[in-house]
Fold this sequence. Notes:
Elements: H1 17-21, H2 27-35, E1 42-48, E2 51-53, E3 57-68, E4 80-89, E5 94-102, E6 109-124, H3 137-140, E7 158-175, E8 178-192, H4 196-200, H5 215-221, E9 232-245, E10 256-266, E11 270-271, E12 275-276, E13 282-296, E14 300-314, H6 318-321, E15 355-372, E16 375-392, H7 398-408, E17 432-443, E18 447-456, E19 467-472
Amino acid sequence: MGLADVQYAFAAGENNPDEVENTPRDSTKRKKKNEDGIRTGWTFGVLPSVSYDADLGFQFGALTNIYYFGDGSTYPEYLHSFYAEASYTTKRYGVFRLFYDSKYLIPKHRLTIDMSYLPDAMCDFTGFNGYQSIFNDNWRNSKKYSAEEGYKSRAFYKYKRDLFRFSADIEGKIHSYWNWNIGVGVLGYLTGPVNLGLINSGKKDENKLPEIEGLYDKYVKWNLIKENEKKGGVHPYVRAGGSFDSRDKQMNPSKGIYSDAFLTYTAAFNSSYFGDQTEFNNLKLNFNFRHYLPIYKDYISFAYRLSLQMTVAGNSPFYLNSYWNTLYIQRVLYEGLGGGNTLRGITRNRILANGFAFANIEFRFKVWKFKIKKENFYIGLNPLFDVGMVLQPYDIDENNLKKSIAENDPNFDINTLDDYFNFDKSCVYQPHFSAGIGLKAAMNDNFVLSVDWAVPFNKQDAPGFANLYVKIGYMF
């Protein structure tokens, strides 16, 4: 793997707010709860963020999650959660994030606020429509292939992407398990070719990446990425929808259902820097269904998630099509499809399209529960299976593409185009599969260190064969 992908998932129990307000809170009951392992007051977990990547350099930083449980009457649901992370590398990859979550700041409403800056000097870009874009391992793998064998650069399937995000989401109860949801936010992107000068700085000549065009540069030349989207853009959004939540708790629930459906309207503007982006005003539909089934007490459960995202009106720039809309920003960044938040084992952003669907399946085992002082811990194992596919592909017409290349990239050998694309449209809708296993270490049913290892069924999805993900929290 490259850089360890350390991210966050919030955790809470599921209680009826009316029941919480009427719970007796005398000192005798608080003492009993503490003896039974119920947490009160403040608690927090801290992890260092240190790793190394040949292209991105050394990463230094830390993350913390602070919970406030009050007198413990709502445990394992917290009253307030504060999350902060700051990490950066010597080659400009970073996570700078503040996140707040509470059902009690606004009585009977859930409020989540996220503010993040996520610079990424080497973001994955393997083309459009999944298997329609051929992923050539020999073009990017310097450890296995020489220039004579086709090696181009480790940065060939990369581009530069910096993202600033602010979001505020509120949930209110309709009746019983049914809720309404609204949210506002803004996504600001700066995109462009990989800054090879930055990546190569400090390296010996024999270790420097060659100055060549990457796939992103070719897509811009070939007009697959338009002039008015190649630099990124600023996109305010508003979303609204509803959700159903009958889970017994939110961090590794053993039973219940969570489902949501919502629409997100994203705006775009005409600017001197990004160009006229008014064609990129768009409306997207998201649907998610998660089901948790108990098998043996609290020790074994079966969980699965079904999700889709569709563009129902307007057009969406390529960089927004890799952003998976969610009602709650549990992790640092949701990208679809591919990677540790959607399809584990499959290269990040491998399936880039206007609309997609995916599913995740897990068996969850708590193999060992224990206590250290006042803290409750468990170790878990999760066999996993993921699958995803394109629903709304980009329209890549072979004849039109050849005309565009002839006009804009006359030095390109058109006879090599089959090395980039599979023009058999049936491959576009071919599912992408992966499987693996996860290891979980949890404290107080809230702070969960997660390590997932997964492999794709098709080498086109991850030529390196397997991927490892180190995160905070369950995937869903």
